[in-house]
């Protein structure tokens, strides 16, 4: 589980912002928002331009940094805070792997190149790399069963890469963690495999105009030829409050076509934007063979009726009880103790501070409090 995350000097977050998943307040209701004594379901509210999308991109950054599989960098545009004089953004992740505390921290320059990287397990520094000097500390690799790693090969390849980059004007540095994962035959229960497996299963989505295009890729269409998969999608839509029957047919050119089953078949592409957004949510997060470790759903209910938003959260709780899910929204109807709880609902302020509702008032919030009414009346306004 991810225990804590913080980022500093990243986009609109000049000062450090932290999400502490261990900061639970002991409420005895909506206990399905908690798993293994950590927050597993979280709602974040914030006015426009407070950085809700940037926070999601920051927390899932490790999926690119630590991934052993090469793919295109997710970065585009400005990386560093425009008002800061610091030259790098700092990302920090604290994990709990079977009772062992693992801290992975790194810094990126404005050109996206790594400045430094560090891994610590139970307070012991396993490795530390300062790429700007350069200076390395690899003395404690044995603590994670990686003592056989030939670090000289890494340093030599790094030196060659830096020389090549200087000639071409590039600058991407291979993270040592990624190199270690790629070059060590670690056991499945090792720290390295735990980090790789967790980071690889982190996913993020945000409301945008491309949902309709992505949801109906040919591969997704074709997979619905399987009656069980088609039934699963149909049951999902009905659980969300969209009463329908689905039918899949193979077209003459070989591809599949999805329809609403009425007296006359209606192509599924005619569905509303809300239904299409639901299918995209299903395709990305519920149509999976491996359960996600962390999902960041930015404005997940941008196209939904408030009852459907409620249904989505309940569905996520039931399907992925241990997955850590962060959802951003403007829908105050979800601010209810029957669905969430005060230590799992947060306000993101214009100044880049994240505050749980239980810490945003002098009152002792109880199950009977109407959180939505308190929010609308301005109870938590000073934290916006």
Account of the 3D structure:
This protein is α+β, with helices and mostly antiparallel strands and 384 residues long. 28% of the residues lie in helices and 24% in strands. The chain contains eleven helices and 18 strands. It has helices spanning 52-59, 62-65, 151-168, 176-183, 191-200, 211-215, 218-223, 227-239, 273-286, 306-319, 371-376; strands spanning 2-8, 17-20, 34-35, 38-39, 41-46, 88-97, 100-109, 114-121, 124-130, 135-137, 202-206, 246-250, 256-260, 266-267, 294-298, 324-328, 345-348, 354-356. Strands 2-1-6-7-8-9-10 form a seven-stranded antiparallel beta sheet. The protein has a six-stranded mixed beta sheet with strand order 11-15-16-5-17-18, sandwiched between helices. A hairpin with a 4-residue loop joins β9 and β10 (135-137). The longest helix has 18 residues, at 151-168. The protein starts with a strand and ends in an 8-residue tail after the last helix. The model is unreliable at 209-213 (pLDDT under 50).
What are the salient characteristics of this protein?
7-stranded antiparallel β-sheet, globular, alpha+beta, 28% helix, 384 residues
Overall pLDDT score: 89
Oligomer: single chain
Share of helix among residues?
A: 25-40%
Shape: globular
Strand order of the largest sheet: 2-1-6-7-8-9-10
Beta-strand content bin: 15-25%
Question: What secondary-structure arrangement, pairings included, does this model have?
Answer:
Layout: E1 2-8, E2 17-20, E3 34-35, E4 38-39, E5 41-46, H1 52-59, H2 62-65, E6 88-97, E7 100-109, E8 114-121, E9 124-130, E10 135-137, H3 151-168, H4 176-183, H5 191-200, E11 202-206, H6 211-215, H7 218-223, H8 227-239, E12 246-250, E13 256-260, E14 266-267, H9 273-286, E15 294-298, H10 306-319, E16 324-328, E17 345-348, E18 354-356, H11 371-376
Parallel strand pairs: 5-16, 5-17, 11-15, 15-16
Antiparallel strand pairs: 1-2, 1-6, 3-4, 6-7, 7-8, 8-9, 9-10, 12-13, 13-14, 17-18
């Amino acid at each position: 589980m991810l225990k804590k995350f913080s980022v500093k000097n990243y986009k609109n977050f000049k000062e450090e912002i932290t999400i502490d998943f261990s900061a639970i307040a002991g409420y005895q209701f909506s206990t399905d928002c908690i798993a293994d004594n950590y927050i597993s379901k979280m709602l974040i509210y914030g006015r426009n331009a407070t950085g809700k999308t940037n926070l999601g991109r920051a927390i899932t950054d490790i999926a690119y940094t630590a991934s052993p599989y090469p793919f295109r960098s997710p970065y585009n545009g400005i990386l560093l805070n425009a008002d800061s004089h610091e030259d790098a953004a700092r990302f920090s992740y604290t994990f709990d792997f079977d009772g062992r505390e693992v801290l992975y921290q790194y810094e990126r320059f404005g050109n996206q190149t790594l400045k430094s990287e560090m891994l610590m397990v139970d307070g012991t520094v396993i490795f530390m790399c300062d790429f700007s000097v350069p200076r390395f500390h690899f003395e404690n690799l044995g603590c994670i069963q990686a003592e056989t790693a030939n670090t000289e090969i890494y340093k030599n390849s790094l030196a060659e890469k830096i020389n090549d980059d200087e000639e071409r004007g590039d600058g991407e540095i291979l993270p040592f963690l990624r190199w270690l994962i790629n070059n060590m035959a670690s056991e499945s229960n090792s720290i390295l495999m735990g980090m790789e497996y967790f980071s690889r299963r982190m996913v993020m989505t945000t409301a945008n105009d491309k949902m309709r295009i992505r949801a109906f890729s040919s591969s997704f269409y074709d997979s619905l030829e399987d009656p069980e998969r088609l039934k699963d999608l149909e049951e999902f839509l009905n659980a969300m409050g969209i009463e329908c029957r689905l039918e899949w047919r193979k077209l003459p050119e070989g591809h599949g076509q999805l329809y609403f089953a009425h007296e006359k078949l209606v192509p599924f592409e005619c569905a509303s934007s809300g239904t299409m957004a639901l299918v995209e949510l299903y395709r990305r997060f519920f149509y999976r063979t491996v359960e996600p470790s962390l999902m960041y759903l930015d404005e997940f209910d941008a196209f939904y009726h408030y009852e459907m938003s409620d249904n989505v959260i309940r569905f996520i709780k039931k399907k992925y009880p241990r997955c850590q899910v962060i959802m951003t929204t403007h829908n105050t109807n979800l601010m209810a103790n029957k669905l969430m709880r005060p230590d799992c609902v947060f306000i993101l302020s214009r100044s880049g501070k994240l505050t749980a509702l239980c810490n945003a008032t002098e009152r002792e919030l109880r199950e009977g409090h109407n959180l939505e009414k308190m929010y609308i009346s301005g109870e938590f306004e000073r934290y916006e």
